[in-house]
Amino acid sequence: MILNYKNIEVHYKDEGKGKVLLLLHGFLENSTMWDSLKPELLKTRRLISVDLLGHGQTGCLGYVHPMGMMAETVAAVLKTLNVIRFSVIGHSMGGYVALALAEQQPNAIEGLCLMNSTFEADDEARKQIRKRSIELAQGNYEALVRMSYVNLFSSESAKKYLNEIEAGLNQALKTSKQGYVAAQEGMCLRSDKLEVLKNLKAKKWMLMGTKDAVIKADPLKNRIGQTDIVLKELGCGHMMHLESITELTYIIKHVIE
């Protein structure tokens, strides 16, 4: 389905019946990342998945996509569908967008799950990595995307999930250079959102991978220790929807639900 929004096309899918579960993909992904989870989730939920700005088939709104701008675009989709209340799962960058959406519409959210994601802002080292990636994007962009995507997997997983990685990489390569740059710039601008998450009157989950090289769980545990945010760890890396699909599906259906 397509929403014409600010002179661009925003692509999304609206499937199933029941309470709404909004699915937000990560950087260099698109709404197809949820396909392996959908058969089980559709048994009880109405699923809305959106191609975020500059990803999949959705266009760009300039060369900087702040997470708030991405959240506003998602909100426009929800408004078109007359969705008032919903739960949301955000993978990696999608988690940042979910937090921005929670800041904008706290009363609309029934549950929020950060999957391989964080409420923390980028530190200076991470910002420099993003800036360097933006510079490299002006050169061999395809090689950069390949490197960026494969680096999301541990060396063990990279060998074990060759077919899944290749399929995901084919989707990652559909991300335009403008979309790549705009997302990196937008992620650099993020502020810490722990207070947003703490104050949200909804069920709150964080799903982390013990082998995740991008998001480390231990520093986050200390910051959420006295809150109602539930953190659960799976024995996988940053791409748990590929590396631990059975366990992840079970957790979403029987724990978070």
UniProtKB/TrEMBL annotation:
Molecular-function GO term, any one: hydrolase activity
Every AB hydrolase-1 domain range: 20-160
Keywords: Hydrolase
Domain of life, source organism: Bacteria
Entry annotated with the keyword Translocase: no
Record PANTHER family: MONOACYLGLYCEROL LIPASE (PTHR43798)
Protein name as annotated: Alpha/beta hydrolase
Organism: Subsaximicrobium wynnwilliamsii
Taxonomy of the source species: Bacteria, Pseudomonadati, Bacteroidota, Flavobacteriia, Flavobacteriales
